Amino acid sequence: MAEPTPRRNEPRLRPAPLLFEPAEVAADPEHFFDLESIDDPRALLARATELTQAFRAATDRAVEFQAIAAAQLADPRRFDRLTPADIAARAEWTEDYAKKMVEFGRDLMRGVEGPGHVDPV
């Protein structure tokens, strides 16, 4: 799930470092996947668009894994199962969103994806 836009008085959250960006380069706050070194606006637009699409795909995939984990944690067959409120607290979600993610995860584990399938995000 994407981070909400911070309000003026809230600090902006930094994205998690990506594994394929060298740590010494990632430490430079002005560096972002070498985009700052591209002078040609056409090339910059193309590369930035590629990154945007890659991040969206990664976000979608990560949300699916979150949903699967939520469904597994809420599985009534587990002796240590968690309630939607417990899952919400761990993931920093609302309880209603946790319930939707549990259902989404159950659908994913059953292989249900069709016209009636609704992504909770």
Give a description of the structure.
The chain has four helices and no strands. The model is unreliable at 1-8 (pLDDT under 50). By secondary structure, it is mainly alpha-helical. It starts with 22 loop residues before the first helix and ends in an 11-residue tail after the last helix.
In a nutshell, what does this entry contain?
With 121 residues, this protein is an all-alpha fold.
Our count of helices gives 4
Count of β-strands:
0
Structural class: mainly alpha
Instruction: Characterize the overall form.
Output: elongated
Order of helices and strands: HHHH
Low-confidence stretches: 1-8
Strand content range: under 5%
Oligomer state of the chains in this structure:
single chain
On the 0-100 scale, what is the average pLDDT?
A: 80
The largest sheet, given as strand count, sense and whether it forms a barrel, is: none
Rg over alpha carbons: 18 Å
Tell me roughly what share of residues is in helical segments: 40-55%
Q: What is the distance, rounded to the nearest whole angstrom, between the alpha carbons of the first and last residues?
A: 7 Å
Strand-helix topology:
Blueprint: H1 23-26, H2 41-73, H3 84-91, H4 95-110
Helix pairs in contact: 2-4, 3-4
Please describe the structure with a list of short key phrases separated by commas or semicolons.
single chain, 121 residues, mainly alpha, disordered N terminus
